[in-house]
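Give me C-alpha cells for this 223-residue protein.
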Amino acid sequence: MILSDADLTALYLTLKLALASTIILLALGTPFAWWLARTRWRYKFFIEALIALPLVLPPTVLGFYLLLLLGANGPLTAIGAAPLAFTFSGLVIGSVIYSMPFVIQPLHDAFQAIGKRPLEVAATLRASPWNRFLTIALPLARPGFITASVLGFAHTIGEFGVVLMIGGNIPGQTQVLSIAIYDHVESLDYASAHWLSGGLIVLSFIMLVLVYASNRRFRVFKI
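Here you go.
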C-alpha cells in the first residue's frame, strides 16, 4: 500500500517536529543538566521535580494549560505576542516541555557518573572550566547524549494528547502521525492505520536498538 499525500505530509511534519524539539532540548538541556549535576544547592530537588513533572502529568492537562498560555486570549497576546496555538511553533514549544525529562535526566545522570576526579585532574593541569567541560565532560557523557537524543526524538514522534490540544488537527500544518493514525481508525481505515502504526513501531525499535548497542560498545571500550 502506498501512503497518501496527507500521510506523507504528516510524516514530514512529525520528523520535522521531533528534530526541532530534540535540537532545542539538547541546546537548553546540556548546560542545565550540567548545572544540576554539579550544584550543591540544597533545594535543587524542586527543580528536578519540576523537570520530571511531565512524566506523571496527564498530557491533556499539560496541553490544556499550554493552550491557555499560547492561545488568542492568553497572557502572551496581552503583551503583544502573536498567538501560537494551532501553529507548528506552538507544537515545538509543547513538545519541548513535554519531552524535557527524557532529555535532561539522561544528560544529568551521565554528567553525574563522571565524578569529580577526572575534572580535578584536568584542573591540576591548568585546564579552564570551559576546557574541562569540552574535553572531559562532553566526551565521557557521550552515552548520555545518545540516549537523550534518541529518547527525546522518539518521545516527540509518539506524542498525541499534547499536540492535539495545542495544535488541533490541521492537515499540512499541525497534523502529525499520531493524529493521522487516530483519524484513520476513526474512519475505519485500518489498513492505513496499520501502515503508519507499524512503521512507528519499527522506527522506535530501531532507535532503541541503536541506543543499547552504542552504550554497550562504549562500556566495553571504557573497560
